[in-house]
Specification:
Layout lengths: L9 E8 L2 E4 L4 E10 L4 E4 L4 E4 L9 E4 L4 E5 L6 E5 L21 E4 L10 H5 L5 E2 L7 E2 L2 E2 L2 E2 L9 E9 L4 E3 L2 E2 L3 E4 L6 E8 L6 E4 L4 E8 L6 E4 L5 E8 L9 E3 L18 E3 L2 E3 L14 E3 L6 E3 L2 E3 L8
Parallel strand pairs: 1-3, 2-4, 3-5, 3-6, 4-7, 5-8, 6-9, 7-14, 8-14, 9-17, 14-18, 17-19, 18-20, 19-21, 20-22, 21-23, 22-24, 22-25, 23-26, 24-27, 25-28
Antiparallel strand pairs: 10-13, 11-12, 15-16
């Protein structure tokens, strides 16, 4: 009689990751609370691996932080993407969770050593080089490292690789009015690879860039509660092939663009926000969309000097540029 294949193990993960760690596609990994890839640690995630996040209240919900000096090597393929999703998501049932099911775990946060132009945190703004503490979190130390800080002086900083990664159904609150994004990139350097990444059904932005110099290709931001793409703190990356589509029930702008943090917005920040986006397609919630949020194609704030080229903005029920 043929022997049935062994059932994949579910490994519960939390706390600090150090050294060389590999997550195998034969197992499922459950983030039960905040999990940190510390400085000099490397987290390798095999193609086809499923990582799930537990729901709860801060800090007891699944979120993965790649801290300054740490690396994530998440290299999926088109046939075997790496999936981050909610604990309750039955991936064998495509109708299990809907596009409107959001906030069921946290998200992915990568914190690097590239430059930011301003910090809301007063001590970080006065430091040389400047650093910020990730929004909604305390300036916490684990094993002697400030795990929520980002920013520095190395625009070539390398936090690893995200390739063919799908993140779904997250966006839990870090603190009141501070939900987590699908992918948050704080001070991430251009040595980092971010390509073919999807953020689906998050209770905040799909992607947010907090300064840094990371370049991206082939990003998808779909059915998220807030902005499709959000920028801040003097990001300088180059990007191509973005796609965003917004939901009828909850959404904000196709893209919100900030040159500096609103709290310290006086035009003196260096580097200026000079990122470039080529070949983007952003689709709004439709001319008759419900809900109370604005639905502008682009919200442009002071001192953002971005360039968008060969791009399409359509089906927004607000202003094309606000």
């Amino acid at each position: 009689m043929a022997q049935l294949p062994a059932k994949a193990a579910t490994n519960e993960i939390s706390g600090a990751l150090t050294g060389e760690v590999t997550w195998s596609s034969t197992n499922t990994y459950l983030l039960t609370s905040y999990t940190y890839v510390l400085s000099n640690a490397v987290l390798r995630i095999e193609a086809g691996t499923v990582v799930k996040g537990r729901n709860g209240t801060a800090p007891n919900f699944g979120t993965l932080f790649v801290c300054q000096g740490g690396k994530i090597l998440a290299e999926g393929t088109a046939e075997k993407p790496i999936i981050f999703t909610a604990e309750d998501d039955d991936l064998a049932d495509p109708a299990d969770l809907l596009a409107t099911d959001r906030g069921l775990w946290g998200g992915l946060v990568i914190l690097g050593n590239a430059r930011i132009n301003k910090a809301v945190n007063a001590a970080g703004d006065a430091a040389t080089p400047k650093y910020e503490v990730f929004e909604g979190l305390e300036d916490l130390q684990i094993e002697g490292q400030y795990v929520h800080r980002f920013g520095g002086a190395n625009d070539d900083d390398n936090s690893g690789v995200l390739r063919y990664v799908s993140l779904r159904h997250g966006g839990q609150k870090l603190s009141p009015d501070k939900e987590i994004n699908g992918v948050s990139l704080g001070g991430v350097g251009r040595g980092t690879v971010v390509e073919h990444v999807e953020a689906l059904s998050f209770a905040d932005d799909g992607f947010e860039f907090f300064g840094g110099s990371v370049n991206t290709k082939y990003l998808v931001s779909a059915f998220n509660d807030d902005d499709g793409f959000d920028t801040d703190m003097g990001w300088t990356g180059k990007n191509q092939f973005w796609f965003g589509i917004q939901s009828n029930d909850k959404r904000d702008n196709g893209s919100e663009q900030n040159g500096e943090p609103n709290e310290r917005n006086d035009g003196t920040g260096v580097p200026a926000a000079t990122y470039e986006v080529y070949n983007a397609t952003l689709i709004g919630a439709g001319a008759t969309a419900g809900g109370t949020a604005n639905n502008n194609g682009m919200l442009l704030r002071r001192y953002a000097q971005a360039g968008w080229y060969n791009s399409i903005f359509t089906d927004f029920n607000g202003q094309p540029l606000n």
